[in-house]
Amino acid sequence: MPGPGDHNKIIHQLASERLKPLGLIQKGRSRTWLDDHGWWLIVVEFQPSSSSQGSYCNTGIDYLWWPKDHLAFGWDWARVQTESGDFISFSGDLDGFETAFHSMVDGAAKVTLRHRRSQGSDDQTVLRGLTRRRRRRGTPLYSDYDVAAASGLLGDMKRARKAFGRIASTDDDQRDWVLRAKDTASTLASLLERPGDFAVELADRVAITRSALKLPEASLTWDPRTR
Predict the structure, then answer these.
(1) Has residue 224 been placed in a domain?
(2) Distance between CA 190 and CA 23 in Å, rounded?
(3) Is the dihedral of CA 146, 147, 149, 154 positive or negative?
(4) Can you give the residue range of the structural domain that contains 142?
(5) Same domain, 109 and 140
(6) 97 shares its domain with 21
(7) In angstroms, rounded to a whole number, what is the distance separating the alpha carbons of residues 227 and 225?
(8) Contact 96/179 with Cβ under 8 angstroms?
(9) Per DSSP, what are the bridge partners of residue 88?
């Protein structure tokens, strides 16, 4: 009889077979896989359900210049859809689950490749694309932070100041993370006149996040210390 964890073995096996050849790495022994680009990640998470055995698949892009100790689906969050819907249920039929999960992991691979194409092949292209993004619903401060950071690295100080200014002008929300965002925006805005220092500060923030996520050190093309 199948054990309660046997479907997890199928998830790991099929994810490894499909995602490893694309260059994704498994985060520890979790059900999360990362397409690592130094200062940003494509995140693929095979999320369990709290009520039944099986898996969803969440995907998104996470920029690492906001120090944190967890992954986030900041931009382009989506759930992979299959013919069975967005959840592959396991009810004891290993063969049936494996067949259904094939379509989910194939969908995850396709979304990963689509994210790579939409982002671009080099840092300058990724940064330019980010400055043209619309603010994310529900998390406009993080959106402004991303746009401001990208604009500052590209030398578009007017756009960077405007985005940082939107964060600083958030006066009606006193939650801790909002206050931290305002303080961070003020610190980074003060460095815009010194582009090298601005780039170093963002690189250091990426390093903090990578360390907290237990990711290896990465060399960033826009860090003047590595040139």
Answers:
(1) no
(2) 38
(3) positive
(4) 123-217
(5) no
(6) yes
(7) 6
(8) no
(9) 55
Domain endpoint, select from 119, 134, 157 = 119
Asked whether the predicted pLDDT for residue 25 surpasses 60, the reply is: yes
pLDDT of residue 2: 46
Q: How far apart are the first and last CA of the chain?
A: 58
Whether 171 and 107 map to the same domain: the answer is no
pLDDT tens column, 149-200: 999 999 999 999 999 999 998 877 888 988 998 999 999 999 999 999 999 9
- Distance, CA of 47 to CA of 69 (rounded, Å): 18
| Residue from 133, 86, 138, 136 nearest 111 by CA | 86
CB distance 103 to 86 below 8 Å? no
Residues 38 and 140 in one domain: no
Q: How far apart are CA 163 and CA 124, in angstroms?
A: 19
The string of pLDDT tens digits covering residues 103-125 is 999 999 999 999 999 999 999 99
pLDDT value of position 5: 62
Q: Contact at 8 Å (CB) between 55 and 101?
A: yes
What region, left, alpha or beta, does residue 81 occupy, with left being phi > 0 and alpha being psi -120 to 50 degrees?
Answer: beta
**137: confidence class by pLDDT, cuts 50, 70, 90:** low
Buried b / exposed e across 147-166, counting CB within 10 Å, b at 16+?
A: bbbbbbbbebbebbbebbeb
CA 4 to chain centre: 30
Whether residue 114 is found in the same domain as residue 19: yes
Whether 195 is in a domain gets the answer: yes
- Domain stop point among 65, 93, 119: 119
